Amino acid sequence: MSKKLFIETLGCAMNSRDSEHMIAQLKEKEGYETTDDMPSADLILINTCSVREKPVSKLFSELGVFNKKKKESAKIGVCGCTASHLGDEILKRAPYVSFVLGARNVSRIAEVLHKDKAVEVDINYDESEFAFDDYRTSPYKAYINISIGCDKSCTFCIVPKTRGDEISIPDELIIREAQKVVDSGAKEIFLLGQNVNNYGRRFSGEHEKVNFTELLRRLSKIEKLERIRFTSPHPFHMDDEFIEEFAKNPKICKSMHMPLQSGSTKVLKDMKRGYSKEWFLNRVEKLRAECPEVSISTDIIVAFPGESDTDFEDTIDVMKQVEFDQIFSFKYSPRPETEAESFTNVVDEDIASMRLTTLQDLNTKIIDDKNATQLGRTYKVYFEALNRDYFVSGRTDNNLVVKVKGSDELLGQFRDVKITSIGRTILTGEIVA
Ligand code: SAH
Ligand code: F3S
Questions:
Q1: pTM of the model as a whole
Q2: What is the pLDDT of residues 23-79, one digit of tens each?
Q3: Do 343 and 262 belong together in one domain?
Q4: Residue 127 covered by a domain
Q5: Is the CB of 195 under 6 A from ligand 2?
Q6: What are the start-end ranges of the H helices in 170-260?
Q7: Which of 157, 232, 332 has most ligand 2 atoms within 8 Å of its beta carbon, as the pocket-test mutant?
């Protein structure tokens, strides 16, 4: 009987891809099969996130529960960003953990598995050429890493400390990988990096100069590849050439993530984001002029140290001007080893909560108004998931989630769908062609 692996993945898409890598390694080298049933597992992995404090504190309570419920012989491994930043402290706080494996070291999973109390958390480890393995959660779309680490130094962000310096993966490897997944039937690829449009700044070895725009051009030449998505681009690096390629290349999905963080130029400066409110609005204007159908999502942090009422009003102003299609909004959470951790002009917790509510209420209104205009429209949908009650769901080019009545025969297929009813996060429709 094969050994069983239970893996829980927290955080971002990069963590999801790292989990896929670990599963691939453990299947191939150690004969594991995945299970959703933790108490029957022989190996339990938690792939952690550390961008905010909450998931970190949750980790230790969860570890306690896992330890109580697991099979006696089962090993627990803590992987990912919290593993990178807490290292052996995890073994001190939870001595029943068998090993700790950092976000930049996931390629070594099969190795640490056999070393009791191993702590592998080297953030300078270069696994840029290791980024490809055969395990994929979905047969219809594939995550592909294009870079590892992050070279920015946003003052609130712990990621450069957990994932190290940025290294781009050679484009020939990325193209080969994309070709491979397309040959296996996937029609969509999802390129991943902390800062994708900084691609090509540094490779491990000698490499021809290739920027992100050129990488997109090269990838789109792959026959039978129909959709390219990516996350996350940085507003600072959104030059005209990139926006124009995005708009005119039919294989690039018309959905752009533009992490604003704050609408106040003063706060953006304190965050060391490298752009102003005006630059951000100018990029949105250029993007919408070139590509009117684009949907734009964003990340916003409220109550960064020193954020005044006027600064927050600037964020609200950008929200009203841009009318984002989706926002991910957070209260600022001080992180260890970041520059902002020592900022003393902390915003009162009640004010922070109020600002988050104001922002989210405004967003809900914007989304409801936008959704109301969707009724009766027809979109091309790529179906990728089977839901309950005989529904199949997929995404439009501009990232709306749409479900229709249907069977698994629709999976991996494109269909024209007319929207017949509206929900806040998912639209319902019927196939017209
Ligand atoms: N480059 C990555 C950023 C990873 S962090 C990307 O663009 O996806 C993801 C998001 O978490 C950030 O955009 C930011 O909005 C939020 N975040 C990061 N650090 C944070 C902190 N200390 N407090 C609150 N939110 C934070
Ligand atoms: Fe973090 Fe800024 Fe990089 S948000 S991941 S340091 S671009």
A1: 0.95
A2: 999 999 999 999 999 999 999 999 999 999 988 888 999 999 999 999 999 999 999
A3: yes
A4: no
A5: yes
A6: 171-183, 212-219, 240-248
A7: 157
Q: Which ligand is nearest to the CA of 163?
A: 2
Distances (CA, A) of 348 to 126, 295, 305: 41, 34, 9
Closest Cα to atom 5, ligand 1: which residue?
51
> From atom 1 of ligand 2, which residue's Cα is the shortest distance away?
157
CATH code: domain of residue 59: 3.40.50.12160
**273 CA to middle of ligand 2, Å?**
9
With a CB cutoff of 8 Å and minimum separation 6, the contacts of 289 are none
Nearest residue to 242 via CA among 188, 195, 203 = 195
Q: How far is the CA of 30 from the centre of ligand 2 (A)?
A: 35
Ligand nearest to the CA of 166: 2
Q: For residue 433, what pLDDT is reported?
A: 85
CA 224 – ligand 1 centroid, Å: 34
83-121 per-position pLDDT tens digit? 999 999 999 999 999 999 999 999 999 999 999 999 999
Same domain (yes/no): 84, 100: yes
Contact 32, 26 (CB under 8 A): yes
Instruction: Tell me which residue range forms the domain holding 279.
Output: 256-369
Same domain, 99 and 65: yes
